[in-house]
Amino acid sequence: MKSLTVENLVQIFSLNVLTGENQLHKLITQPRSHRPGLEFVGHFDFFPTERVQILGRKEITYLHKLSIKERKLRIGNIVKYRPPCFIVTAGQEGLTYLTQYCIEEEIPLLCTNELQSTSEFILKLDNYMVKTLAPETAIHGVCLNVYGMGILIRGKSGVGKSETAHTLIGRGHRLVADDIVVLKKLSPRTILGTHDVKTKEFLSLRSIGLLNVVRLYGRKAFQDETRIAIDIELTTWQKDTLNNELEHESKFTEYMGVQIPHIEIQLQPGRDVAGLIEAAANNWLLKQQGYSAAEEFMKRLEAEF
What we know:
With 305 residues, the chain is an alpha/beta fold. It has helices at 6-12, 57-65, 68-79, 96-105, 118-133, 161-170, 213-217, 273-288, 293-304, and strands at 4-5, 16-19, 27-28, 53-55, 86-88, 109-111, 136-146, 149-155, 174-187, 190-194, 202-205, 209-212, 225-236, 251-255, 258-267. α4 (96-105) links the parallel β5 (86-88) and β6. The longest helix is centred in the middle third of the chain and has 16 residues, at 118-133. The N and C termini lie far apart (62 Å). The model has no long low-confidence stretch (mean pLDDT 91).
């Protein structure tokens, strides 16, 4: 199971450490944070103790209004479960009582620097944790963003993946990763494509060598990550295997349980592979919007008879 530490959150979000400086090594394994609300009134049946606990204006205001005896009971009931850490947001003050209990249970108590709303902070925090803790795998291929859609280009070594990517970059599209593509599963229907850091911004072309696309073509030529929409496989030309059906049967490639639409493009001298990939991307977008060129063509034929 993937994990990150409380210290990672302190560094990424510039959090102040109020207690638990020697407990920042604690692991976080769940990608979502939690705001204890029902727990403060004694309902613990579904308390996600393994999650980062967020205390915003609502929670702190509620605690301030309690008597000392009641406050001790409410806080004590939560800290005994020893979650990875507590994060206080929105510039709350008067946290001496909370600090005391966190020290006793050796739980890191953190607070944000920026006076942003609790919901804004939770959105940023959860997005970071979801991406960091997402299941991932690495495949051999190229990943680009074409017309705002993530395109995965696969094929045997030497088939022309990187050369095709270079042509697409020249047409204004963006490289995400070359050679090693890291795929992250963000949800049952979402695969994110990114690089492995070492190959970031690099494109390797046979006979030319290694290129830094940002240095050559500017920042617009590169994108850090993209949601994968289409899986394209480049294969060598095979005579009599391609046909001219109005619409090919949908095929899919599965990555970590998520099905991605799959298209095979056979290579032959003179074929505009980059143009075919652009056409595939635009056609996929139209299908997402409910339009099918094949269906419209058939309706026109039916109208003739």
